[in-house]
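Structure ticket #2291
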Amino acid sequence: MSGRGWRWCRMSRRQALCKMAVAAALFLSLPAADAQGPLTRKVITKVAPDYPELARQANINITGKVRVLVVVARNGTIRDSKVLGGHPLLVSAAMKALKQWKFEAADEETTGTVEFDFKPK
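Resolution: structure written out below.
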C-alpha cells in the first residue's frame, strides 16, 4: 500500500510541476505583448477590413474588436504579427487587411498593437 501511495504522490507532483510550468510560461509571455502600446509609426497605406461575408450571409451580427501585435520592419512592411484577441471570423478579415498595410520607413523596427473595430453594416 505504501508503494502505491508513493507512486500516486510522485505522479501528482509531476503533474503539479507541469501545470505550474505551463501557467508560469503563459503568465510570463502575456505581459510582454500587453505592455506594447498602440503602433505609433505613420501608416502610408491603410486598408480597412471588410466585414466577413460568411457572417453577413448567415445573418450573424458579430461585433467586437480584434487586437494584433505588429512588428514593422525598417522598410515599412509588416515583418511579424500575433493576434492578441478577437472573434475568429473577425480575426481572419483583420489579418487580410493588415497584410496590405504599408508604413513609413524608419531607422529601426517598431512594435505595437493595432486594433480593428467591427460592426455589421
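Closing remark: Residues 36-118 form a domain with the TolA/TonB C-terminal domain fold (CATH 3.30.2420.10).
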